[in-house]
Write a structure and sequence with these properties.
alpha+beta, two-stranded parallel ribbon, 8 helices, 8 strands, disordered N terminus, transmembrane, membrane
């Protein structure tokens, strides 16, 4: 009884080196011999004489079917074997392309690579844009692609969109102090607009911890708005908050775009201006999967003042001014939350009376219009 071959033995015989070398030599010789050559003068004379003999009937029939044709068939057979050997990696390549057509350059089959290119991230914003973003594909947002059809599709995610400028000394204020002011401003923006607890309606504790308690009037107003919101004290003027009983965020991504600048402050320190837009995709809390987006642009002016010259708290920011522009939220509702509107349901608020605006247009200053206006947005 023969032994069972071991598992580590090859399943197919290997080609010996000497056989492979002989095969290579034969192939090269055949290629050289089969290459077209310019016939010599003697060869042309012989060919002409044979043609004349054939015309006179002096050659036997079938003289052209001799060994020369057999040799040609032999070379053809070797070429077929060569193609079979080369055909193995070719077949593998074809199979790979069939499984993943994107391996071919240029996406010839239209597999969607162009969509990925269109969604490539934008470079950071270092200056005010000169115009609004161009038109996007007219796609409806979905749970899987909540930013489809929005310019924000190419914006950075969350904190990644808040890129601090390089800190430099401003007059007597050192670069380290400038860097501290920039980082505190970012902490305020994150806590007020990106913190998941804040967005879901909780108290924005992280953002409030950055503000100087030596501004008691400001903090009292913010606390009043968070406890008992109303028209005069509405926390959404500084914080992005949604009613968890009404809507819930789609996924964990909030798109962010903007810039931060700094200059010498009026309180012996460094003044920072932050201008950022945040895009929030949400669905109704009661189950339907229709996705809508609310767009919030905020402009803040803060200062890290000099504690040796002014009565301020070291390491805290003075909030000097803040403004906002909100796209796709019900007008004249002062309950402390943003209220996105869905295209499938009619708005319960008043009819639009103000101008139509593009909430993605960051090339203009925030419009200081009449508080009684309720405008429309051109896109969400």
């Amino acid at each position: 009884m023969s032994e069972k071959p071991s598992d580590d033995q090859p399943s197919a015989p290997q080609i010996p080196d000497d056989v492979w070398e002989q095969f290579t030599r034969d192939t090269e010789r055949d290629i050289r011999s089969s290459a077209p050559k310019e016939p010599s003068a003697r060869a042309r004379m012989v060919t002409e004489r044979l043609r004349e003999q054939e015309a006179r009937g002096e050659l036997p029939p079938g003289w052209r079917t001799g060994p020369a044709w057999q040799e040609m068939n032999g070379r053809a057979a070797r070429r077929r074997k060569l193609w079979a050997i080369l055909g193995v990696p070719v077949a593998v390549a074809v199979a790979l392309v069939a499984l993943k057509p994107s391996l071919l350059p240029g996406d010839p089959f239209g597999t969607g690579e162009s969509r990925a290119a269109e969604a490539s991230p934008l470079p950071e914003e270092t200056a005010a844009p000169t115009a609004a973003p161009g038109a996007s594909d007219p796609e409806e947002p979905t749970l899987d692609r909540p930013f489809a059809g929005s310019p924000a599709l190419r914006w950075a995610d969350g904190e990644a969109g808040i890129v601090l400028p390089e800190a430099e000394a401003v007059g007597p204020v050192s670069a380290d102090r400038v860097e501290q002011a920039l980082k505190l401003t970012k902490k305020l923006l994150v806590g007020a607009n990106l913190d998941p607890k804040t967005v879901r309606g909780a108290r924005p504790a992280a953002a409030l911890s950055v503000l100087d308690p030596q501004q008691p009037e400001l903090l009292d107003e913010l606390d009043t708005g968070l406890r008992s919101p109303g028209r005069e004290h509405d926390p959404v003027t500084l914080f992005s908050r949604f009613d968890p009983d009404e809507v819930r965020p789609v996924g964990d991504v909030i798109k962010t775009r903007g810039r931060m600048t700094f200059k010498k402050g009026s309180h012996g320190g460094v003044a920072v201006r932050a201008d950022y837009t945040f895009v929030y995709p949400v669905v109704r809390a009661d189950g339907p999967t229709e996705v809508t987006r609310t767009i919030v642009r905020r402009v803040l002016d803060v200062e890290l003042a000099d504690p040796t010259r002014y009565r301020v708290t070291p390491g805290r920011l003075l909030l000097l001014d803040y403004d906002q522009e909100i796209g796709n939220s019900s007008c004249f509702v002062y309950d402390g939350y943003l209220h996105p509107e869905f295209s499938s349901s009619a708005s319960a608020g008043p009819s639009p009376s103000g101008p139509a605006t593009d909430p993605y247009d960051r090339s203009k200053d925030i419009d200081q219009g009449d508080d009684d206006d309720c405008g429309t947005v051109t896109r969400t």
